Amino acid sequence: MASLQSGGDAAANGVDADVDGAASPPSAKRPRAGAGAAAITDAEVRAEFAHHDRAVARLTTAPSAAARRRFAEGDFARGDVVLMFLYTYCSIKNSIHAYVARAGATVVEVPLPFPVSSPDAIIAEFRAALAVARDGGRRRVRLAVIDHITAMPTVLIPVKELVAICREEGVDKVFVDAAHAVGQVPVDVRDIGADFYASNLHKWFFCPSAVAFIHTRKDDPVSSKLHHPVVSSEYGNGLPMESAWIGVRDYSAQLVVPDVVDFVNRFDGGVEGIRRRNHDKVVEMGTMLAAAWGTFLGTPPEMCGSMLMVGLPGSLGVGSEDDAVGLRTMLRKQFKVEVPLYYNSKAAAADAPPEMVKDGNGDPVTGYVRISHQVYNVREEYEALRDAVAKLVADGFTCRKLRPPEKEETLA
């Protein structure tokens, strides 16, 4: 309830469309070749996509679909290196292994310190992992995959700074997976400076699933060689045309984007006002939960958008991912509370203060909830979560009670 449940990888259920030209009428089943395969007009796109060059920004179904397109077209070979975060979303990871590692390239993962107290900790880990990837200049880092906002644990990554580091260190290409970014944080793709930037519109921009966009640098020779993974009659006519019609699909998610832009602009301050209020509210609710449970926030407020990690009381004994799943199920069934849970098996950042390691009773904090705030959420929902966890603690509940005997013996 308190967490907005975002759609997953629905890339198989949609189609791309070029962000250019006049709006196609809903009754048109196929765009005219001369019309630029359009879905959104200039006026409609300005509200949220002012920094997105129409020549290089295109609608797609999900960042994972955009990633597969990029990785499949890349010329990777044995000895090449790809850098990505440990917490990169699973479908993006799978795309890397399907198209990149299979060609013999090496994948180096950047450990994300959590809980984290400052962007500097992430930058330090990224530099260290990049040094390992380059191996003293003996290896070529062909691609860096950087999250703008990690999903679980959710952390706002200093993406502009990391892209700049990649440029300094000679990384060939940078792909930013920004699935949660649009509608949650300001997005200026030209300022960020990545070669490829993809973000969903169905997570935080009120669109139905599945619609996203991919932005490529205009001067990038690779972008001109990209093709839609589904070969159709438009193959060879450029990515916008290839993407605009790939067979009998449900195009409604793409066609309603102009209406969503209008809807967002009805709110005070438009999308910027929504972002600001959501951020302030999620921090307020997270602080309320942490105070009630004697715990802490997983990141400082400036490192979150509209999602935030809050530590659970250590006495709950979250000792594995299975424990987290079991506790989430219990909260749903017994208390009618729906919230994603995270088991943290990693050590906190080296610069994390002691109060971001243990709760007020001195118990290590290993479990976290990820709360979110959208315009329709109300305080009572977060209070229901607060009270449910407080009751479990008061009743002496631990996750041991959820484990089968053989699992308990293993963890013991």
TrEMBL record:
**Domain named Aminotransferase class V: which ranges?**
138-219
Q: Where is the composition biased (Low complexity)?
A: 7-35
Looking at the keywords, is Amino-acid biosynthesis present? no
Q: Which Pfam families match?
A: Aminotran_5 (PF00266)
Q: Which domain of life is it from?
A: Eukaryota
Instruction: Tell me if RNA-binding is a UniProt keyword of this record.
Output: no
Q: Which InterPro entries is this protein grouped with? A: Aminotrans_V_dom, PyrdxlP-dep_Trfase, PyrdxlP-dep_Trfase_major
Q: Locate the region Disordered.
A: 1-35
Cite the entry's keywords alphabetically.
Pyridoxal phosphate
Q: Which PANTHER family match?
A: L-CYSTEINE DESULFHYDRASE (PTHR43092), L-CYSTEINE DESULFHYDRASE 2-RELATED (PTHR43092:SF5)
What is the name of the protein in this document?
A: Aminotransferase class V domain-containing protein
Organism for this UniProt entry: Oryza barthii
